[in-house]
Amino acid sequence: MATAARPMDGSQSVPTAGELIARAKAMIPTLKARARQCVSNRNVSAETITEMKAAGFFRILQPKRWGGYEMHPNVFFEVQKALAEGCMSTGWMYGVVGCHPYEMALFHAEAQEEVWGDDADMLVSSTYQPVGKVTHVDGGFRLSGRWGFSTGSTHCGWVLLGAFCPPKDDGTPAEMRTFLLPRSDYAIDEDAWHTFGLQGTGSHDIIVDDVFVPDYRTHRSIDGFLCQNPGQEANTAPLYSLPWAQVFVRSVSTAAFGGAEAAIKAGMAIMQDRVSTNTGKASKDDPILQAALARAIAEKSEMETTLRLTFEELMGYAERGEAIPMEKRTFFAYQSSTVVRRLADLIDDIVKQLGGRAIYMTSEIIQPWLDLHAGRAHVANDPNNRSGEAIATRLGAAPLNPFV
Asked: Of 114, 80, 116, 85, whose CA–CA distance to 97 is shortest?
């Protein structure tokens, strides 16, 4: 089915990567000022969403045929890190919602038209928990269920929901799919998100009661795994030949870099003028605290470099039209899965040395510290889910988990 795409016209200038990153960094003070309200409201403000749209952040991974920029994923991740330094909840929300234009580019063209045909700025939330009940019907499926963790859902007009499709009578095997639903087909429970960290992500529950989802508004996980998606017929840029999972797993680990940067800077600030009232010792002279700070700065930089080079390598394969070796895909996913836990541990070591100054909720180090520990709970940030395959594929075995 032909669709009426909305490419950018001559009156719209495409910002450079440097301009987008600079815009994100310029928002850090504003996001810091709004962070406590963001946490209190358990949601990113509509004002922040409007400013992020105006800055072009949600267009970085969006196809050009819909007014997007089709930029290198590392631009997206640099923007995410900057936003997360100002407020990790905002950076996390941006990472999740902002990567969905990439997945939408993999859907059938008809689905893209429905989402972006009237509004190229339309946002899409998600929750990929395979908890939905699916029934096969003519032309598609009936879907019901309750999903948790739909980040940014109140700001979005569509949602992506994970579910297993049961076998069909013709012997077609069960398979994992993502179902795309408009806002009229689901309810949001805004009183389900009460957490100790990442409170401001607005990761509410989604409720669906027996709605019809046409086949073209579904995305098969196996297509994402094989990099053979229906949307690639229209979106032919090498960018969209990457494994979808590689983009997504980075979107839920990268905010931790910004959160850790905020925590390190907060720790440095406390260190400079803190003197223990009990021992009379100055924190700036504490070699254990100095070591913890130096280690956090060094290891964070090493992890950032590793993941940046990962996507340089992935894009190199895509631009050459070459398949990415499976042992690389599983190992890249493993590397991403270690980031949040490692950063949380590094900030733990700093907090331990700051005494009573780091136990008040008013301390600048506490919120990013809590956010890091909340972020490690995401299934994609558990290295135990990735280590086996990272080794097995190096020995020639096929991955059991297709989300790589």
From this structure: 80
Within-domain flag for 315: yes
On whether both 192 and 130 belong to a single domain, the answer is yes
- Residue 243: name the closest of 403, 75, 63 by CA: 403
Q: How far apart are CA 84 and CA 261, in angstroms?
A: 9
Res 279 pLDDT > 80: no
Q: Are both 92 and 191 inside the same structural domain? A: no
pLDDT at 303 exceeding the cut of 90: yes
Instruction: Kindly list the distances between the CA atom of residue 234 and the CA atoms of 107, 142, 225, 243, in Å, as whole numbers in the listed order.
Output: 10, 28, 19, 17
At 110-127, the pLDDT tens digits run 999 999 999 999 999 999
Is residue 9 in a domain?
A: no
Question: For the chain, what is the domain count?
Answer: 3
Report the half-sphere exposure of 292 (CA within 13 A, side-chain side). 26
pLDDT digits (tens, 9 = 90+) for 347-358: 999 999 998 888
For residues 225, 226, 227, 229, the Cα torsion angle rounded to the nearest 10 degrees is -90
**Of the residues 121, 136, 166, the one at which a domain ends:** 121
31 and 80 inside one domain: yes
Task: Provide DSSP, 144-171.
Answer: EEEEEEETTGGG-SEEEEEEEEPPPTT-
Provide the whole-model pTM. 0.95
In a domain, 106, yes or no: yes
Residue 102, classed as helix, strand or coil, is helix
pLDDT at 10: 44
